[in-house]
Amino acid sequence: NWWYAPPILTDLMKYLPAIADETRLKIAKELLKGEEITNASLANTLQLANSSVTHHLRIMKEAGLVYSYKENRNSKKERLVLNSFWFRDMAKGFMEVYESVSGGSQN
Questions:
Q1: Are the C-beta atoms of 82 and 31 separated by less than 8 Å?
Q2: Which residues pair with 69 in a beta bridge?
Q3: What is the dihedral of CA 22, 88, 16, 14, to 10 degrees?
Q4: Weakest mean pLDDT among 10-14, 21-25, 26-30, 60-64
Q5: ∠ CA(32), CA(33), CA(34), 5° rounding?
Q6: Contact present, 31 and 81 (Cβ < 8 Å)
Q7: Beta bridge partners of 67
Q8: What percent of the chain is predicted at pLDDT more than 90?
Q9: CA torsion 62→63→66→68, rounded to 10°?
Q10: How, if at all, do strands 78-82 and 66-70 pair?
Q11: What is the distance, to the nearest Å, from the Cα of residue 79 to the centroid of all Cα atoms in its chain?
Q12: Tens of pLDDT along 39-59?
């Protein structure tokens, strides 16, 4: 192979399509606020159908951008959380790709 792809590049290829959508960017923006949020409250805030929010969240969860949890076993509401590590990973990945393409590191 003529070009070495850093391992993080595979993560970037997974993350970018998952965030490259206007609705998913809006969802990420809401989740970045750090408030506890559910599917229903997110749908209400963004004025979207619950099924649409569920669809976009599924894509984001599969890419590892969002995870959810229940406060207890009996709770039916899932709280949504943005995986903040993906920001760091994406920045690192961009730098690794840049360095491999440019042939050197930049400070």
A1: yes
A2: 79
A3: -130
A4: 10-14
A5: 85
A6: yes
A7: 81
A8: 19
A9: 20
A10: antiparallel
A11: 15
A12: 899 999 999 999 999 999 999
Contacts 24+ apart (CB under 8 A), 26-29: 27/53, 27/56, 27/57, 27/60, 27/66, 28/60, 28/65, 28/82
pLDDT tier for residue 13 given thresholds of 50, 70 and 90: confident
pLDDT at 94: 63
Q: Which two tokens stand for residue 3?
A: 């070009």
Give the C-alpha separation, 26 to 72, whole Å.
Answer: 28
CA dihedral (17, 20, 22, 27) in degrees, to 10, reads: 70
| Residue 97 host element (H or E) | helix 85-102
What six digits make up the tokens of 39? 């599917």
pTM (2 d.p.): 0.69
